[in-house]
Amino acid sequence: MQLVVGRIARPHGIRGELAVEVRTDEPDQRFAVGSVLSTDPPGAGPLTVTAARWHSGRLLVRFARIGDIEQAVALRGIWLVVDSAEIPAPDEPDVFHDHQLIGLRVVTTAGSPVGTVADVLHQGQDVLVIEPGGGDPAAGGGAAGAAGTGSPDHGLLVPFVAAIAVEVDLAAGRLVIDPPPGLLELGAGGEGTAAGPGPEGGQE
Asked: I need a labelling partner for 147 at 20 to 30 A (CA). Which of 3, 61, 98, 155 fits?
């Protein structure tokens, strides 16, 4: 699975430096000197980081072989991605990256299928976007696609807190929830818009 760690916004100056919109909780690690980032579309990369610095709250990055403003302008809007297999698991057993949760089948403690985790939102508290029906093989549901493809407009919104998400079994591909009465009905729909590939993000 490809995870977005940033999006190239625009050139900074005339020597090839680029402002990057950060989409990861670990920018200093993902954009460390020597890091090699794949791109979406693939033809723009891979790109090797040669320098990175923060300036006025923005991350400014230099890439190998990008030395003037013309080359920098050509990269505007490019997504910077990494393979999820390259992301180490969190040290804490109850902490998960978004991509570990996306695609899990969701069932209640009574064993009733709810759906499949399609996205994870970070809006004050972590919220799972669950695509109904995905957790029931008999209903023809399947695993969710790439990170960020879910939308609050087309899924159940379930807070990812210990009192509700009582078990995460990555090996079995299952997440067990104990929803309070009415939560699954109230969690359907909601406001918000998903735009572009999803961020790496995560509870890190």
From this structure: 61
CB 129 within 8 A of CB 115: no
**Could you tell me the sign of the dihedral formed by the alpha carbons of 44, 34, 51, 9, in that order?**
positive
Backbone angles phi, psi at 38, to 5 degrees: -80, 170
Q: How far apart are CA 194 and CA 81, in angstroms?
A: 18
The residues, any chain, with a CB within 8 Å of residue 145's CB and separated by 6 or more, are: none
160 and 126 in contact (C-beta within 8 Å)?
Answer: yes
Nearest to 126 by CA among 151, 97, 161, 153: 161
Pair type for strands 174-177 and 156-159: unpaired
Alpha-carbon gap, residue 78 to 8, rounded angstroms: 5
Express each pLDDT in 130-153 by its tens digit: 998 744 333 333 333 333 333 445
